[in-house]
Amino acid sequence: MGIVVQKFGGTSVATPQLRERVVEHVARTLREEHQVVVVVSAMGRAGDPYATDTLLGLARQVGAWPAGGASRELDLLLSCGEVIASGIMALTLQARGLPAQALTGGQAGIITDGTFGSARIEEVRPDRLLALLAEGIIPVVAGFQGVTADGEVTTLGRGGSDTTAAALGVALQAERVEIYTDVDGMKAADPRLLPEAPTLQRVTYREAMEMAYLGARVVHPRAVEIAMEGRVPLQIRSTVGSAPGTLVTDGLNGPGEALPREAPARADRPVRAIAHVGPRSRVWAVPARGEFDGEEIHQLFQSVAEAGVSVDMIYVAPDRLSFVVDEELGDQVREVLTRRGARFEVTSGFAKVSCVGAGMHGLPGVMARIARALAEAGVRIYHTVDSHANISCLVRQEEVGTAVRALSREFGLLESGSGGLR
Ligand code: ASP
Ligand code: MG
Fold it and tell me: pTM higher than 0.85, yes or no?
């Protein structure tokens, strides 16, 4: 009789009808003799009264936006969205005869550092949750938030309820963490671009993490990282419908099943999924004269860092350096580099399209196939970067759909059976 953490996203708790589905999931899991901990996000999307974006809109109306976009007051305000959801969800469970108790993140034992807007969980003290479970009570925890050691309420960054669920799953040594959302799992490619993209039945932590960092939006990458470190399986599935969704694990199919830790990757299918993010701006700079020296390179990146801009797809050579930033931050970079008197160019309108697969490591020919597929589709590559489990290409934003379709075809992602791990 293990613990199952069930996290319901904002769209899954948005209406009374959907909250009845939540009750059904909880009740079913209790019937299967599990103990359940519920984690909820703020109800609904922008425009709905208690959604995170609505609360953010309220704060923006004040007109005094905090420097750096985060503050103690903003976090306290935003945390209310999840607190409201946990109260409503606990009341709903109680009304259906299930004993439940709503808790803030802090009450649930989530202790964070003091970085408002993007706090990191330092510690989870599970005692209170365990005591409730022992009494047969379902804790309904407000996601996305914690409390500092000295009692300040913090939030974990957008999408942070997944992180709450994973951290609780690890601290409670849960059998699994279930992430309920409005799609039935992780897809081989963005279903908005490729509606026929199959759901991946199983992916490794590494693949899920790469996909999440590279733009797949169903689960927060930090949550996958925490689940991976704690070796708790994640199941990503739809709140409506009964499809099992995607199991994120290292080859174990579930408790007690002695499969290899990581199933062997298939050489003919080194790429499991295509992810994309955008818009991005590409920045490149050349030396004022001759070649860059080490100190110039340091100064340039240092000034970008001091402007609070994170860089990606970094390329440094004696005669040129380039990197990619969030398009929103392009102007900030332009300003910084102008002040430094650098010779540079910032071009907007790019996106990063990535092929992800733990099986590509050490396998010859993956880049050749990417290059061929994109060439045949008429998509120009402006920059690439790779790791052991992905190859990312910078392309024009308007060509993302074409690129995703071409790469999905090249790597057989639309063929039946491509969703399994083997
Ligand atoms: N409500 C928060 C957000 O919209 C956290 C979450 O949904 O996971 O980012
Ligand atoms: Mg989310």
Answer: yes
